[in-house]
Amino acid sequence: MIGDDEKMSTRNKIACAAALVVLVAIIGAYFFLHSKVRTPELALKMIGESIDAHDARAFNGVVDVDNVLNSSYDGFVDGLIESDGAMSPEAREAITDFTQMLRQPIINSLKTAIETYVENGSIEQPQTDADNKFMAASDIMVRAGLSKLEFKQVDGIAIDERNPDRAVADIRFYQPEAESDFVFKVVLERNDDLNWRVVRIDNFRDFTEIVAKIRRIALDKYLEQTAEINLRHDQTIREAEQKYGAILSLGNLGQDQTRFDLKVLLTDVVKKDWEVRKQELFTVDVPATAEALQNLRMRICDLSIGSAIDYAKWLEDNKSATMKSAEEKQKQAQILMDEEKNLIARMTRRTFEPAAPVEEVEPAVEPAVEQ
Questions:
Q1: What is the pLDDT of residue 124?
Q2: How far is CA 189 from CA 114, 154, 198, 286, in A?
Q3: What predicted TM-score, i.e. pTM, was given to this entire model?
Q4: How far is the C-alpha of 350 from the C-alpha of 348, rounded, in Å?
Q5: What are the residue ranges in the chain where pLDDT is below 70?
Q6: What single DSSP character describes residue 161?
Q7: Helix (H/G/I), strand (E/B), else coil: 203
Q8: How does pLDDT run across 12-58, given as a tens digit for each residue?
Q9: In Å, how far are 65, 66, 81, 346 from 204, measured between CA atoms?
Q10: Which one, of 218, 234, 331, lies nearest residue 280 by Cα?
């Protein structure tokens, strides 16, 4: 049986051990709270640790999210505007006014995404808030060129010689679109309790300009390559139209030979040319900014191919339903061609100017119908 003295000794040991644990915890907490953020280096380190621990409170303690987003938004807008040297003063003013209207919804969306990422490890959040429905944070990041950034390293951190309470960290990322690194100038400031906090990114505008210029170059290359393809195939279609007229001038649709010659023209020239055009357009590298135009062009090709097939079929069966199907496809193709012209006009910096007239090219050769 354990004696009173032994029980007392055991209780003392437990009490001493507990006291030691509490002391270690107090010391650890002191150094965590006072040394972890008392230098810019440790403040940056704490950002990563807070994200790994999904600790939003610790993260907000070392990152002024509101200030970072507000300053970055201005840099984002300024960078986009300055990257387009051909933009008129009126267009600049219109874009600036428009983007300021979007400012708060976009900032709200990004802030919610950051909070969600810190807490859950993902930027996706339920689409319940009106601001978040306006524009998804993932889409904003894609537009800003941030979605595929790859962190490489912290190049260095320097205290401002003129202001000991300000430091700049050079943080290197790889930007896939640019195929090169970009070093962000991340500014940290020391507050009244001597802790450091990230407050803004000094050169976000420079980053935006670089991304916008790279995308502009890629878009211009796409437009140039596809314009050459379309011009070449448009010439083939015009020649087919002339050939169509020549065939009709030598006969009429009541003659089997005339109908046969027109069918061969539609299947072996018109249809085939649209198929080749589609394949050539498909092989061109398409930047994200031209995806809508590329999809539109693929649809035009499909409708024009279908129209040529239906017209050729009508020359055999002479059914009104076949002709109606061909005409409907041709009509849809022409509507999309008009939309294509408007889209190209906007892409070639003519959004705020009247688009120059463009010669229309029919999507297929339409046989004359004898009454």
A1: 63
A2: 21, 17, 7, 43
A3: 0.70
A4: 6
A5: 1-37, 78-99, 123-136, 349-371
A6: S
A7: coil
A8: 444 444 444 443 443 333 334 444 457 888 888 888 898 889 999 99
A9: 15, 15, 13, 26
A10: 234
Alpha-carbon distance of 219 to 197, in angstroms, equals 39
Query: Would you say the C-alpha torsion 309, 311, 316, 319 has a positive or negative sign?
Result: positive
Report whether 59 contacts 186 (CB < 8 A): no
Q: Which residues contact 296 (CB under 8 A, 6 or more apart)?
A: 336, 339, 340, 343
Show the tokens assigned to 170.
């050079």
Q: Which residues contact 165 (CB under 8 A, 6 or more apart)?
A: 189, 190
User: Using an 8 Å Cβ cutoff, are 296 and 340 in contact?
Assistant: yes
Q: Which residue, 369, 257, 277, is CA-closest to 322?
A: 369
- Residue whose entry in the numeric block shows the structure tokens 């319940």: 128
Q: In sequence order, what are the residues at sequence separation of 6 or more whose Cβ sits closer than 8 angstroms to the Cβ of residue 156?
A: 169, 170
**Phi/psi-derived region of residue 364, left when phi > 0, alpha when psi is between -120 and 50, beta in every other case:** beta
Contact 233, 273 (CB under 8 A): yes
Q: Which helix (H) or strand (E) holds 169?
A: strand 166-175
Query: Closest Cα to residue 365, out of 218, 263, 222, 250?
Result: 263
End-to-end CA distance of the chain: 121
Looking at this protein, which amino acid is placed at residue 23?
L
What's the pLDDT score for residue 359?
43
- d(CA 218, CA 300) in angstroms, rounded, equals 23
Contacts of 169 (CB under 8 A, 6+ apart): 40, 44, 154, 156, 157, 185, 186, 187, 188
Burial of 316 (0-12, 13-18, 19+ CB in 10 A): exposed
Q: Is 139 helix (H, G, I), strand (E, B) or coil?
A: helix
Q: Where are the alpha helices (H) located in 121-203, listed in sequence order?
A: 130-134, 137-144
Tally of CA atoms within 13 A in the half-sphere of 280 that contains its CB: 15
Three-state DSSP at 171 gives strand
Q: What CA–CA distance (Å, rounded) separates 241 from 245?
A: 6
Burial of 55 (0-12, 13-18, 19+ CB in 10 A): middle
Closest CA to 170 of 189, 185, 150: 185
The pLDDT of residue 196: 92
